[in-house]
Amino acid sequence: MTADKDTKPEWYQEDVKSINPDAQNLLENYSGFQADEVLPHVLSLRAEAFRIYHYPCIGQMRFLSFHIPRHPLFERVLEHLRNNPTAGFLDAGCCFGQEIRYLAHQGIPSRQLFGLDFEQAFIDLGYKLFRDKDRLETTFALGDLTVDDGGSEEALTKTLGGKIDIVYASSLFHLWDYGTQLKAATRLVSLLRDQVGVIVVGRQLGSIFAGEYPLTGFSDGTQYRHNLESLKGFWLDVGQATSTQWKVEAELKVEDVVQQNLKSSWGDSNMRMIWWSATRIA
Q1: For the chain, which has fewer Cβ within 10 Å, the N-terminal or C-terminal residue?
Q2: Can you spell out the DSSP letters for 45-60?
């Protein structure tokens, strides 16, 4: 959804005095900023990004949060990438690519890291945010997982197909209704290596009560919020659509972002964050 550049929604975080320590550390030690340069730089980039899209993750400064190290499968992901130099990691809906930079700073060769977004401006802003265009070897691909476009699908397959062992999808699927989520997941599976053991890991807004919820104040559409049972059913549907089978592990959590979104027009007391993984078993 393209935003009115002068509009600030109710959930926009004003008067930011600092950023989280992990992001501060990365921007100093990976990007080379002086400590007092970081906050003005970040706020300038946020303003530029928010003029493009009114995403809560931008307005609420969550584009500087690193969620991959908190995922239950993080050590497994790290070990796989370190032990297999040809293994590929795809951040689907990468936005600024902050998780990619985190992994690169952990010593994962950036040529093993891939990013996918539908907006070139976010990829360009990522280079600007982290000051690494001259040294990051990550391949970024442009595409919309939800649009039936043969040319776009062919281009994504050419760029990413057969190179990916791990897909990471954070704050992605909750943008869509169930049918659109299914379409996106099916396309992501098609980009993975065609073998048992490949995994999709993610986190997103969920609910104690699974179902479609209006995205009031953000768009005219709905988002499907999963609970543990619905997510397992979802991956059964993905498996049926792709002739594959998946083992799903998931848990619902109450986190700061949930408390933050309770104040939004789409918030309710049943909201949770759902952390999950789907590992191909057949």
Answers
A1: C
A2: HHHHHHTTB--HHHHT
